[in-house]
Backbone:
């Protein structure tokens, strides 16, 4: 899926994302282990990946989008940036921790694609290595991505974001229209659509077990004690 326009405006539109919260959660989960090698899948423009480099010795960021990776490369030359497909990759390296954050996994539309990703992650982890990922909850899909329209209006950029349920269960079309200010005072319009799907929590649990993951834990909204499904973001943690 291309991010021709979203990549251009991504950092501006996500500057209020609680990126440090992802780092804090990972720190809580890895207090008894040293992170020598970390792989951040679906790294986007690399903002969160750069924060992970503060708690991991060697960090690799991987994303399917050329545009996103080019943006990420400008943020750090100490991180290894790679273009790659999370459903089918071979890096000839194993990692202590692999993360798939910011609902990146929700861009996989089929259960087979999710299963393929879990398999490739498993084979890239060291023994006792840890996988952490987060996805949209079913609750969020039904209450916030169900024909809602959102507007983000800034001095030099306006985003009109329309959500429409897709044909697949718990899926959504994000129809994005950007109006960006030009130097001459005029505005340019760009349109882009993104498709996401989430799965019910028991299905993620089952897939992880089939692949071979152990010590599977889940929680919500960055709080490892939160077990309320009426939340926005579902986290999973599992070990090889």
Residues:
């Amino acid at each position: 899926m291309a991010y021709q326009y979203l990549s251009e405006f991504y950092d501006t539109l996500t500057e209020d994302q609680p990126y440090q919260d992802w780092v804090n959660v990972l720190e809580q989960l890895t207090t008894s282990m040293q992170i020598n090698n970390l792989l951040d899948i679906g790294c986007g423009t690399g903002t969160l990946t750069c924060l992970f480099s503060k708690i991991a010795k060697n960090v690799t960021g991987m994303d399917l989008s050329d545009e996103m990776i080019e943006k990420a490369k400008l943020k750090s030359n100490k991180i290894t940036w790679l273009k790659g497909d999370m459903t089918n990759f071979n890096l000839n390296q194993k990692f202590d921790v692999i993360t798939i954050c910011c609902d990146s996994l929700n861009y996989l539309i089929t259960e087979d694609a999710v299963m393929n990703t879990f398999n490739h992650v498993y084979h890239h982890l060291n023994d006792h290595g840890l996988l952490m990922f987060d996805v949209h909850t079913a609750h969020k899909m039904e209450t916030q991505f169900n024909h809602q329209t959102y507007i983000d209006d800034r001095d030099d950029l306006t985003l009109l974001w329309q959500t429409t349920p897709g044909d697949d269960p718990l899926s959504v079309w994000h129809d994005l229209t950007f109006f960006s200010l030009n130097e001459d005072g005029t505005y340019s319009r760009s349109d882009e659509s993104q498709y996401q799907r989430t799965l019910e929590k028991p299905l993620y649990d089952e897939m992880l077990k089939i692949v071979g993951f152990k010590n599977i834990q889940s929680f919500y909204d960055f709080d490892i004690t939160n077990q309320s499904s009426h939340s926005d973001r579902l986290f999973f943690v599992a070990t090889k």
